[in-house]
Every structure is written in structure tokens, then in C-alpha cells.
Amino acid sequence: MNEEDAKKELKILKYERxxxxxxxxxxGKKWGDLFSVYLKPFMVSMGMSFFAQxxxxxxxxxxxxxxFNQAGNDLEGI
Length: 78
Description:
This protein is mainly alpha-helical.
């Protein structure tokens, strides 16, 4: 490597260093960034899951066939 290449590399390194030393460039994400973009879909999904648990739809879907069998009813006539 000749002297001109070394000066060019040094100039590039000095240029890159100003970005690493400044506060303008961040490398990680923060919790605020996550919730700023996905807050509304997150809240909608949590609301829907709470509503489903509150009205008991998941319990009915899980135990529904057992309830009909124990009651002696059949769904063939419907």
C-alpha cells in the first residue's frame, strides 16, 4: 500500500468516526419505537383476546361437544 492509499484510508476512518461519536446515529431500537408503530394493532389484539375470554367463547368451543354428548342432545335434526 502506498502513501496515498494510506492517507485515503485515514480520511475515510476520520469521516466514519464522526458518525460513531455523534448522537445522531443509533444502532439499537427502544421500547418506544416498538410501541409507536405497533401500539394500535397490539391494543386491538389484546382487546379481542380479552373479550373472547370474558364471554367464554374459547371454553364453549373446547367443551361444546362434551356438553352436547352429556346432555343427550344431537345436532342431526338441525
